[in-house]
């Protein structure tokens, strides 16, 4: 089998000047194009005469109550004059203004009835017991003075729905109200509060910004979604576990020693180097992936970050069915062990620091499936050098809409000044809709888009569809947005121009995918194959050998190339010409490169210079190996190993004679991409004396052949 490029050499004679013109040029046919494409009243209702009777009474509480009732009955049944009523009201107002703390608290209005009853009747719920001034009083007889004298209240598991009236306990330092049915608490007037235990309730909000003396706070087992402790700088212990917190900032709590925040929805552990007094942290059962904030907390003897539950989208799956999970963060980047929970079939695992690599997976096999991770405690250097440490959990993979972006040129190798047609396909490959789609091209210097060429799904589009301005809408499963457009290429030979495309959309937050492709500006004096089609083929040959015009002579002439004829986008003058070929067959059976120069004939084929003896000589040729072919990383090894057995250094091709072998690669040789380098100043044409006829232009064909048999 033979793979060939044909090179035409043209010989011209001009009779009127007595000279013969000789030039060599190439003509090849291009291969087909490929398209790739988010105030209660404090008044009790009794008048001033009741207060006076109560204050003056020296009897028992029963007699006080009887006196009050009697006075009420008397007041209601006695007809008084307007003057008497006014005087009574004035006296009542004056007495209350003199000592408002003597005001009775009406149960159900000023203070929660059940809360008040507990205070009045159960000596165990407050620290003063039977000695408290309010203990033993009847309904509605508690006063502000009674409440303000309280320093400690314990009403744990008392089936309370409200602590209304707690604000009157202005001297309160310790409150325990766990395991009730409380949905709201107001401690804005309890400025002396130091210990607060309100766990086991139904609180959705807790405002403690006014309680700056607070040292111990247990608000666990509620329904809190936020907790602001920024003003509680004296906090020593904080237990906010079993809530619904997504954020917890304790960076201001420099005295904090014990932090218990397990079983929340925390994604970030917001501590800082200022929290140097932290001794113990339990942040287990959250959604933490990064524990590096615990580094340098040298007093931290215990931290438990076990059983985290982290949910992330299914990662990108490579063409080789590999995926990586790069969300875990530790300071030492070591000690990680991953394992499978539910991916079927089970993947293979490897790690690189905190990164987990999975092999033998597909997108479908990972949707709604999980893996587990754990770190060896001895490899965690966060906190102190001693103590107990743990970091482990589950990573769940959920499906989000997945868009693919494929950006392809119709030509990979072009000349400066050519047009390239691009196809950009954006496809929703998932079962979920992707919305608010934007596409944005980033064009390099050397690619200019023809704005009149932009087509979207068969319709005329604008540049705003490609620069991230226009919202392209939504894509349902398997739907496609297809753009086509043209760019004009400019630049230097050998330059790679990379076009980048980015697609942004929304699904569980902002998402994006990128794609890119490149075109290479080829040398004007090299003819490249438009597309690669075979495993064994010639990829590039010299475009032309330009010798200019010469005098017809009765003696033999040797003509060399003139640099003045190579002033366009080319590097052949300095680098030389080359013929490039590749062998990527698995058989490794060898190959052979030959070249043959045909007889010269005039352009009308009327005259053939048979046996003319015209010779094309190529000297100092050498073979080179090409690495990373047709990519920006392409490199040339000028002194390769493992070269084919036979490489001609010098060769002369006589017109009309048989082909000559330039390279011969035996079996197991010549695999990969190679090129035969031909120095510019070592390509000469020998023209025998008196060759050709006057007023004739001649052409010859130089055929490069790559055969699969050495």
UniProtKB/TrEMBL annotation:
Residues 50-65, 633-649 have a biased composition (Polar residues). Residues 87-99 have a biased composition (Basic and acidic residues). Residues 28-99, 627-649 are annotated as: Disordered. It comes from the Bacteria. Residues 1-26 form the signal peptide. One of its GO terms (molecular function) is signaling adaptor activity. The keyword Oxidoreductase does not apply. Residues 523-710 form the WxL domain. The keyword Signal applies. InterPro entries: CDIRP, Leu-rich_rpt, LRR_dom_sf, WxL_dom. Keywords: Leucine-rich repeat, Repeat, Signal. Residues 28-49, 66-83 have a biased composition (Low complexity). This is Internalin-J. It comes from Enterococcus faecalis (Streptococcus faecalis).
